[in-house]
Amino acid sequence: MKAIILAAGFGSRLQNDINNNQAYSYLKNIPKGLLPIANKPILSYWAKKIKAYTPITEIFVVTNSLHFNQFVSWAKQEDIPEKNILKNTCCDNNKRNGAIVDFLHPIKHFNIEDEDIFLIASDTLLSKDFSLTKMHKTWTENQILHGPSNQICAYPLNSKELVSKYGIVEIDQNKQDKNYTKVLSCKEKPKPNETNSILACPAVYILSKESLPIIKNTLKQKLKNPKTHHEKDIMGKVIGWTYKTIPTFTLQIEERFDIGNLQSYIETDEFFKSLKTRRLSKN
């Protein structure tokens, strides 16, 4: 299994907020994946989890041309080979490739079509109840029971009114174990009256290698149609494109920290600093 970290976004909304707030000027031009959370880059939290888990043998990072050198410097600190940091050709948010295009880039470039993939978005952190070991164990058991399958994370939103801002999954409510619950439907930012679910799905997936040709071929068709061309930038579509063919199951967690603007960054930083303080006080 290989890990792919998507870090090719430009964080335009966040940078606009920073430009308008002098107190946080030290964050200017830092890509979201390298923002310090409790004095530690976001991606370093993920690197630690991934490197501690032996089934994942390599980490690849996809970034844009503008931020490439910053990620190379970070990779050296984390003992990740420079060759594993792959840049696309983009240096302008308005001309970005799209998340799914960027996801497929290292798969082709490093010839890892026959590998299962652990995928994460670089601006995402999960609550402390998330366990990569548990996620992989559940995925492995589902592979045995159902053949090729995918595993995703899902967490409950605080309000039904929020579903229109997120990718939502609808699951088999008859299953008692929430970690073996099958996805029955995926909806991208539905209206509250269009779903009974409040389970949001962040870009933290285990994708079986059997999913990759489906994603590649579906993307090719979507890009041909002006009405669906925009789907290339919606990472959650890979679950929507595959779940009917590749059984997909949820690992349910308490919370996701999504750093989209300055306020969400501040709240996440403060939360992780408080966790660190509590751990130190216990010691």
Can you describe what's shown?
With 283 residues, the chain is an alpha/beta fold. It has a single domain, classed as Spore Coat Polysaccharide Biosynthesis Protein SpsA, Chain A, CATH 3.90.550.10. 34% of the residues lie in helices and 22% in strands. It has helices at 12-19, 42-51, 68-77, 99-109, 132-146, 211-224, 237-242, 262-282, and strands at residues 2-7, 36-37, 40-41, 58-63, 85-87, 117-121, 124-126, 150-156, 167-171, 181-188, 199-200, 204-207, 248-252, 256-258. Strands 1, 4, 5, 6, 8, 9, 10, 11, 12 and 13 form a 10-stranded mixed sheet that branches. The chain is globular. The chain starts with a strand and ends with a helix.
Structural class of the secondary elements?
A: alpha/beta
Average pLDDT over all residues: 92
Shape descriptor reads globular
The CATH homologous superfamily is termed Spore Coat Polysaccharide Biosynthesis Protein SpsA, Chain A
**What is the radius of gyration?**
18 Å
Write the layout of secondary structure elements.
Blueprint: E1 2-7, H1 12-19, E2 36-37, E3 40-41, H2 42-51, E4 58-63, H3 68-77, E5 85-87, H4 99-109, E6 117-121, E7 124-126, H5 132-146, E8 150-156, E9 167-171, E10 181-188, E11 199-200, E12 204-207, H6 211-224, H7 237-242, E13 248-252, E14 256-258, H8 262-282
Which keywords apply here?
283 residues; alpha/beta; 8 helices
Brief summary of the model shown:
The protein is built from eight helices and 14 strands. The chain is of the alpha/beta class.
